[in-house]
Input
Amino acid sequence: MLSSKQLIRLLLAVLVLSAAMLAMADDGELCEPFKDGVVDESLVSDMLAAAEDGHLYQIRKASSQVGFCVDSQFREVAGTFREFQGGLALGTPDGSNGQTMVVVNTASLETDHAVIDPLIKSERFFDTRNYPEILFVSSGFEWTGARSARLSGDLTLHGVTRPVVFEVELTNLTEDLAGQTDMVLFKATTSINRSDFGMDTLSSLVSDTVRLCLSVEAIKYQA
Output
């Protein structure tokens, strides 16, 4: 029979092993959704290189939000996606673009009105059965101020890929941005026309303009 000290040591060993296994799982999963031809291999390589250099930040899902707002004749509809994943390598003042990739599970969508959820998930709008993911891959990062930037890239939604530009506000940064802080907070907003992505049903009831909003906490990725 184990003594109390032996039992405590065993429990501690299990906890340490569990933490290590979780860390390994996180390491393997960060770039996994973007492999196998989903994103150009050179861009995935850039993300992995940033991880090795200590410049890559992983989005912390528990303290981040990815959502949208759209006006209708009856009320504003706000939606939030509960499942998403990605990372960002911040551009530096010397002109480095960095790299950002985010993938969102469309079926994880929740709105502020449960009756609306099935409609927005249906083939009339997101069609989550046929288009289970939303993908954003950056193509440029331009600083517009000490804590503001423009993030441009390609948004793939409802099977259609279009260029978009996010206005970004960042906090918790040091003067030397790349890899010098353990956590960054940023908000990113942009507007799109849903008809550009093949979602043009109920145009007399629902606005064509959709506002995309991200509030993200990202922690330095430990490769």
